[in-house]
């Protein structure tokens, strides 16, 4: 059952430049002061060394604060703040039941406080339920940042949230968090590799698939080329290049002549020498 007058809810969102969704500048300043005071009261109730809720934090983190106010007449005539709850979306790495890491962005409970004088009157549940309705989430889809034992008992009593999924960070999620991957707990797409850390581009990958052939004549020795069916006729013209073949080691002319003298003469060589006894091998080679 929803609270009726004199209770009302306020939704406060501060923009990055420090302007909230209120028209009056004076009222904006008052709201920022109230947020700071609520953060101090919450930190004191949780025995924290410093507040985790402040107007300056909200300006830079786009958090939303839901405030429950008692509008009944007070001595000052302005009513009183009963409590608040601060929420916001955060990118988290959480473990599932199989201890697998998941990068998600759930709605997180960042701070929750009800004034000590009005606790155990149902105000906390009404404020929490109002937040769920506005954010359109289910209790098991939430991630709670460092919840106190009082908050854990509250969630167990009103929403049957008891079994938690162990995590390595300060956030607590409950069983059923991964049952329905709604947008509040959606998995983020994998990040693309940055340009400066790519091992190679797609064009490089295509280039690596093709074996680079070494230049001539290194490409002739290890490869066995299949002779063509009809080899082209050799040209005797001086303008045409001869057919390329495997290179042979260069031997000086004197060593070549010396080796020829050491080798026994072939019968054909004897006939040639007998026909031209005065000619040298070098001269015969030039006149052929």
TrEMBL record:
Annotated region described as Disordered, given as residue ranges: 217-251
Any one GO MF annotation of this record: tubulin N-acetyltransferase activity
GO cellular component terms, A-Z: axon; clathrin-coated pit; cytoplasm; focal adhesion; microtubule; spindle
Compartments, as annotated in UniProt: Cytoplasm; Membrane, Clathrin-coated pit; Cell junction, Focal adhesion; Cell projection, Axon
Domain N-acetyltransferase, chain residue ranges per copy: 3-178
Annotated catalysed reactions: L-lysyl-[alpha-tubulin] + acetyl-CoA = N(6)-acetyl-L-lysyl-[alpha-tubulin] + CoA + H(+)
GO BP terms: neuron development; regulation of microtubule cytoskeleton organization
UniProt superkingdom: Eukaryota
Subunit structure: Component of the BBSome complex. Interacts with AP2 alpha-adaptins, including AP2A2, but not with AP1 gamma-adaptin (AP1G1/AP1G2); this interaction is required for efficient alpha-tubulin acetylation, hence clathrin-coated pits are sites of microtubule acetylation.
Protein task: Specifically acetylates 'Lys-40' in alpha-tubulin on the lumenal side of microtubules. Promotes microtubule destabilization and accelerates microtubule dynamics; this activity may be independent of acetylation activity. Acetylates alpha-tubulin with a slow enzymatic rate, due to a catalytic site that is not optimized for acetyl transfer. Enters the microtubule through each end and diffuses quickly throughout the lumen of microtubules.
Protein name per the record: Alpha-tubulin N-acetyltransferase 1
């Amino acid at each position: 059952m929803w609270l009726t007058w004199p209770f009302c809810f306020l939704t406060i969102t501060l923009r990055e430049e420090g302007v909230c969704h209120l028209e009056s500048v004076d009222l904006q300043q008052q709201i920022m002061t109230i947020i700071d005071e609520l953060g101090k009261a919450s930190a004191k109730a949780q025995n924290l060394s410093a507040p985790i809720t402040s107007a300056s934090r909200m300006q830079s983190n786009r958090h939303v604060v839901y405030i429950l106010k008692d509008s009944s007449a007070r001595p000052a005539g302005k009513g009183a703040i009963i409590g608040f709850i601060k929420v916001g979306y955060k990118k988290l790495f959480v473990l599932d039941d199989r201890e697998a890491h998941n990068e998600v962005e759930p709605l997180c409970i960042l701070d929750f406080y009800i004034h000590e004088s009005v606790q155990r009157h149902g105000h906390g549940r009404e404020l929490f339920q109002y937040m769920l309705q506005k954010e359109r989430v289910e209790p098991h889809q939430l991630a709670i940042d460092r919840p106190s034992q009082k908050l854990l008992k509250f969630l167990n009593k009103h929403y049957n949230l008891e079994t938690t999924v162990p995590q390595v960070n300060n956030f607590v999620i409950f069983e059923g968090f991964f049952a329905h991957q709604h947008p509040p707990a959606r998995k983020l797409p994998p990040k693309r590799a940055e340009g400066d850390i790519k091992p190679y581009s797609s064009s490089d990958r295509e280039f690596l698939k093709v074996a680079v052939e070494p230049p001539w004549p290194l490409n002739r020795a290890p490869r066995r080329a299949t002779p063509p069916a009809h080899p082209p006729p050799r040209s005797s013209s001086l303008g045409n290049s001869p057919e390329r073949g495997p290179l042979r080691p260069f031997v000086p002319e004197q060593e070549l002549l010396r080796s020829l003298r050491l080798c026994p003469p072939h019968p054909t060589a004897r006939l040639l020498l007998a026909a031209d006894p005065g000619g040298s091998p070098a001269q015969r080679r030039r006149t052929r």
